[in-house]
Write a structure and sequence with these properties.
Chains A, B, C, D, E, F: This is 2-dehydro-3-deoxygluconokinase. The structure is a homohexamer of 340-residue chains. With 340 residues, the first copy, chain A, is an alpha/beta fold. The first copy, chain A, has 11 helices and 17 strands.
């Protein structure tokens, strides 16, 4: 059992109260989150030795981000302090036909302006078992892309398993640039996690035409995509999350896993949404937990999907659930009966 | 492109937090709203030159109402200041089988006690393109009825298009009195907006018997009502909103438009309700926007219905949405996917 | 028309705001409630002369519990003051697949440590018409079991009708102990209220095998259970509430009543849940109201189910609804239309 | 020990949060209060049998006012229900050099429009020991003045001791009218309570010129005023409260009592103000408590001043303190040390 | 009476609730403010035709800043929309010996990255009477310094009176750079406002040694400084505010004005502080109001000091007071008595 | 530099908002604190390797306490999990003449019912430099007294410096029992911290009569007490905090230190109080910090007093200040000027 290291940005999230629009907000709820930080918190909740690596300014706002991570048991000793600012995202919660709205103000953050010499990956991966990051990190800046490449190389060398959540963000880079940068990085990865659109956006990987019905991919289509990913990058696993966006209040949720040989399909959940930010991250964390804890592939997938289903009922970016709570749902009790 | 003038009452709305009942309330959310003010705010959001005309006391509470209108870009220069009080309505939000509850405390407000000499309609309509009011305004007092009649006459004379939302309120007047007063006023109007009950309550206009199925009007029935309205008052348009009250939390929503020749039927939305007050007003505003912006009749109707669908997801009386957001929904994207 | 006396514990309920988890809570909503206190408040709302009997410490927290009861019109003059503490329960609200979570901290409360001499039942039942308690009260301590037994004996002697809600709580006692203690007490009762599991857990009463379909009891099965209860304890009435736990956000709700001769089945409601704590208590109170107010059996049952359906839309333990509101729903208007 | 009856208006108080100005308020704190209601709550806190008499509408807002009074133990059985509205006052809290601001919206309230036949004073005073009202009540309307006159006559006849707090409010009537109406009513009173300005404003009673130093009355001046009051109306007691308005945040506070023979002067307190509304009422209640509980004149005065000093540290109109807390301060412990 | 134009940055202010430290904050109060925007709001409150010129992004956060200004009557038609972000400052309120703490995150804001071609000063000053800015604006970027220089030249040419508040901010530039840039700009100004340290920090202007007592400047010292400023820049007026920092909760406050001939000294206020941000800006606005409204020099100064004294009692950056309220204080009533 | 170990209880603190009384509270602020936990948080803030030892239940409330400690950097790995409940204290904030009020509900907490075998002190003190506890811990139960005695013996043996804050609590034990138990424990201690009353209450140590003036001890008196303490228990240091309780809002604050040879007296602060709970603990932590960081005795004392002065301006039990902030105040800047 070794360290699980995640690397990326943690941002200050500013959100109007309840269903208020930005124009109505007189106060913003204060939450900290980011793809990889969210994964680290989940893993700490599952009693894994989770480390989050980033760069944060020396001021009080940077310290608040550190404190939130510490509160949930993430080890913050590897965080570099310096630079000018904590990245921000403003997040307005949608309802019914009105979508949630995210405004990013993350340029010039400490991590976006970090330098390669800020991180000593050899030391960081000392005693590590797993390394996880998302496609957001190399998109932050050219230097961040270079740092990420250094990180995966060092991880590979140290025998650390590497997972990446493709997480394409069009505000950060073009599909062309993403494809080029990620193409280089994913070569070193063992596990790729993607939502139903990422593979095409980042790598142009599409299912065969016959696998499309009524505009949507069929299960066969997703298998086809998963297969292409595994083959192109020589992966151990590809996992694809499947979100059905019925409205801002209601979503369907399931996922599939491909281990290069067999396909696994999860249960599907109908979710009333409390907060869907971090839904994908909580899936990734659940999968990492399952794969590092001796679960079968099917069980790891069900754990990951149940975990991320629960995330949608929790405010904030972090998935504050216990192994026990996830297991109860994964094993079939979705009745929501009061636990006394 | 000229001024769009609306005239009526703006009230202080006092509402318990969340789903609290009045008996539980320790604080009241403070919002300002009223049929015509809500329309003015919508139109300002759509970049129209919106004016709201009313009378408000010179004290701080009156000023707060002015400030809220200014905040959203409504021109308040035509508001008369004087009188004793801002009208109030207490509003408790319902859920599931429990209906929302409104208690009015609007008697003796500045506008209810306004005098004809308070308003110089000739000046007010100088440069105006459209005039809108609701059936609530003439119901406030006999003098308000007289003022409204003066207003529509002046608008007619100035060549201003006139729309009225029938908006029958049984706490303010009887159906008999409403019919008599409104019968006189609507003669001057070009567009009548009504919900599924107003036409009968105000004017006794009912559909033919054959148009009723299972207690509800059929589409044919509504067409019949629309036709009668257009014919009786020589209107350019009649629009009817159709609310299906499944519960306090879920409603169906659609509308129809009749231009004296053709009938147009909108899409229908299944809505999870955040706040349904002002739903009808946001429809009226959407319709005025469409009709004054070169939209086709069908497009204007779809814009109006999509706009009011979104209103149901927004707290308060005002429909704080942009043209772009309405268009996205009107054009078919109701998936509620996060806008990043 | 006499006093309706309820006897039990009233606790301080501490609940995170909205859908926050305990780990996120920076403030706890403060509410007071408990099975029998909830019934008393409902009955006071229905203009019954409701008394709540308990023991509360002399400090300010005890006084707060008294104040809340007084606020809603419950007579608190029979409450004994003394002992060390107000029992507490922490209550985290669930959503969708995430269940609500209750943590009890009720040991050593004033009522749990009360003594027989604290209560003079003869005086308490002077002028009383009905006595109600739940299976929680005798479970608090052996002394509480003894006090309850004294109470039912005194009530019987005074000719007071006695109702009990079985309300089995596994954290308080084993099924064995519950069966033994309650078996003695229920002998004195006239009305037993139970949910779909209580009869089996407390008394081992199960329906015949043939009455079970797909793991769930059929209507026939519940009738069978009701019949056994009535026969074993020579009851006037048995009522069984039927909760269908679709998720933490949505439940089905109905109930049945058996008067020793005829079975009555209520309407069934699909509920969006605001707060389901106290749902069963509000049913019991509705039933007592109906049975003491000359309602027919069917009408009393419909009143009870409609009342408890409304409870699910109200924050806190208490069911803050009026007779009129319950009647409107019981008579079929579940449309949730705004009451102006 | 008999009933203590108070009669007047209870209003809904709407107050911005903390030190917000009206223009900044997004929610209003909800509190109920009014001169005589405040006195009733204090007396209930001191375990007196306190009744509050008024008229309130049958709607939920009227019920909220009743509930608040019940919560603190005031008997509300004599409250008449009917009429249109609960009077409102908006209250913005001042600080330092910025004064608090009160905007009244109390016209047309149920009590202001009450009729003489609404109240059966003979029954109301059955078993009563004391009757208290303020100069606000007869100022609400001519009918209210007539009702008050009937009340004092009935009280006199029933042998009930009568106290009045002059409480001149310039927004409600002129000094001329106040003088005329109150002159008639005070004839029946036994105790007059006034602040440093009331006597002159209502009755034109001024101290001799020699008693004024630097614009302020000397102690001798207040004695002179008290003497004139006692003599003109044949009173048992006159009490005068002395507020030194240093700023909106800091006040000095003391009082004097004259029993027709001796003068008593209280300690003086330097107060940091939390909420000064109801300060005078809490003095009146403290005095009534002392005079009905066998205190010496000096002790009753000290109790009244200490009670009202504590009121200034409590949010809302009501003085939520116990006898014990008042006694501790009255006996000299103003150190504010933590009570564990 | 012409336009009063102010130019600078308006920021989003994020502040923990009450006296919470950053590390404790779970929500941030949302307020918008900035030196010149604060002045514009004050002037709009005083019924001046106030315009605020800046650049704000086209997103919702930029719109929120516009809305806040509109709410208080500032004309926002001259605001340029574009660029990336709204500048932010985090503001933690101090108390007693603990100072308030401000963390700036204002780099790369739309105004800091604005270009000269964004502003057409000739049009902006069309019909203008007065132009005001602070030393913060030219400190935002070299381009902002250039824009400001263009602005003062254009204002001069248009015959507009120009005032500047020196407002030295060490986080934005060095004293050397400030001196050089401001030296060029102030040449065009008519009125300089400064606090007790600005003149030395920006221009190295110190009082003669003999004017210093116990480390503090004497009145003579400030006169000496004012004289030097007027002489060096050929000013009409110099005003100096004098803050005595007793603690974070208590300050003394006064000011002096020099018109090139006579010195005027204001009253001095002892203030309990609610929020001291914007204190200096409210002084500047008060002075501009006085000087543009025919006040005598002494009266203008007293108005400015009274206005800014009141600002310290108001939450947020904006000074939400009326002319009447300022006049009442300036004329000597600092008693804080309730205004009913 | 070794571990600093503290041992005691951490409680859930439930506090009404602002200056609300318990009877008004609709929510309780949630904070965790306790004498020794407060010290641990301070030391973690000062970058010391702080450990807190206690026993907490395995439920979510216990976890919340752990999370709060982790958030501020305290090492929680030595906390034992088990038992039934987290102790609670209710805390109502006083103002002016109204004292704060604390109601304890701490009996039967996990730590109060802990057993000696729960703690392996030898391991706990492995690598430790300092051990701190207060007189509250042995007062929790006889077993806690025994555990504390084991702890000090183990600490002594391990060469760890031991400090104790006498902290007498009359609700937990009598002065007689305290004297007996503490007399045994303090023998092993090196540093005793006490407030102005503790020494007499716990050990009956009084100053000579001649050292009392006007009811208060003179400086000489405190020296006398300190000397007796040092002599009786062979201490390295005694520190005495001196609180002057002017009112609940204002206190004077200073302290003295005696090292067996010289007396040191600190500066004195006039404090406006935000929250005084934890004031003494923050002094202890400051003193430990100074004494373990090479400060002179006078400097350590000044650091401790400045730190605790700042604590009074911070909400909650924890003193959330940095070394830098304390140093700034200790070195004389109490002006509260904004830190930008």
């Amino acid at each position: 059992m070794g360290k699980i290291v995640t690397f990326g940005e943690i941002m200050l999230r500013l959100a109007p109260v309840g269903f208020e629009r930005f124009a109505q907000a007189r106060e913003f709820g204060v939450v900290y989150g980011g793809g990889e930080a969210n994964v680290a918190v989940s893993l700490a909740n599952y009693n894994k030795e989770a480390y989050f690596v980033t760069k944060l300014p020396k001021n009080e706002i940077g310290q608040c981000a550190v404190n939130e991570l510490r509160k949930y048991g993430v080890n913050t000793n590897l965080i570099v302090r310096g630079g000018d600012r904590v990245g921000i995202y403003y997040c307005e919660k949608g309802a019914s036909q009105r979508p949630s709205k995210v405004i990013y103000d993350r340029s010039h953050s400490s991590i976006a302006e970090a330098k390669r010499e800020d991180f000593n990956w050899k030391e960081i991966f000392n005693g590590a078992e797993w390394f996880h990051f998302t496609g957001i990190t190399p998109a932050l800046s050219d230097e961040c892309a270079a740092i990420t490449l250094e990180a995966v190389k060092a991880a590979k060398e140290a025998g650390v398993t590497i997972s990446v959540d493709l997480n394409y963000r069009k505000k950060l880079w073009s599909t062309e640039k993403a494809g080029k940068v990620m193409g280089e990085i994913v070569k070193y990865c063992d596990v790729v996690i993607a939502n139903e659109e990422d593979a095409e956006k980042v790598f142009g990987i599409k299912a065969d035409e016959t696998d499309i019905t009524g505009g949507h991919l069929s299960d066969e289509g997703y298998k086809n995509v998963a297969k292409q990913l595994v083959e192109r990058f020589d992966l151990k696993y590809t996992a694809i999350t499947l979100r059905e966006s019925i409205s801002a209040s209601d979503n369907g949720w399931s996922a599939m896993l491909y281990d290069g040989k067999d396909f696994f399909k999860s249960r599907r959940y109908d979710m009333h949404i409390v907060d869907r930010v971090g839904g994908g991250d909580s899936f990734g964390a659940g999968l990492i937990y399952g794969l590092t804890s001796g679960y079968s592939n099917q069980a790891a997938l069900e754990f990951a999907v149940a975990a991320s289903c629960l995330k949608h009922t929790i405010e904030g970016d972090f998935n504050l659930v216990s192994i026990e709570e996830v297991e109860t749902l994964a094993k079939g009790d979705a009745s929501g009966r009061v636990q006394r």
